[in-house]
């Protein structure tokens, strides 16, 4: 029985499949996190089973590690892999300059480290993720749990000097408790509505003690595969 998918899932699957087809034998691949990356892992698993594709993968989260290993992908850690040929990952938003907001799934730190260790980064996304200006999706910022309220206050002080439309900051929760990342840190979600200068904001956030990393990915992505609800894809 073919799976019946919503248009958004069809779009995610189409983008993921097209990107999975770009993976070549013996590549060292960074594997992203999230519902679009799920389809990527499935298609890579199908290629491994049907054509004997041999790749090594570096997962960007414990969730991805589990899925990828079930799909038959040989996993290594980044230290063993060294430089990667390609990372394929989802995104919460991307603009036409291929700046990204990521971290909706809370994996932004490992995702950014893995992308930065890769020769190329391809984003896979349904077309709703393509925005004129970043910021409608709350910007995740990973912070240490030690002193997180002071870090939050420092971020609040920083925001008025930036071209933004909102300034609310919320601690991400997992039920009643704070959400804890794979690295043991917390996530603050910045409700900025519009980020006029993503590069400057990314730089300034990273100067604050206690900020581990922001979900702004600047200059890391070179290609986006966009999926549409009817199964078509396009590449920008
Ligand atoms: C996880 C991420 C994801 O790539 C992002 O949230 C997109 O997820 P999805 O493919 O489920 O829409 O950054 O930290």
From TrEMBL:
Which Enzyme Commission number(s) are listed? 5.3.1.6
Q: Which residues bind substrate?
A: 33-36, 89-92, 102-105, 129
Instruction: State the source organism's domain of life.
Output: Bacteria
What does the entry give for GO biological process? D-ribose metabolic process; pentose-phosphate shunt, non-oxidative branch
Query: Briefly, what is this protein's role?
Result: Catalyzes the reversible conversion of ribose-5-phosphate to ribulose 5-phosphate.
Q: Which family does it belong to?
A: Belongs to the ribose 5-phosphate isomerase family.
Subunit organization:
Homodimer.
Q: Name it.
A: Ribose-5-phosphate isomerase A
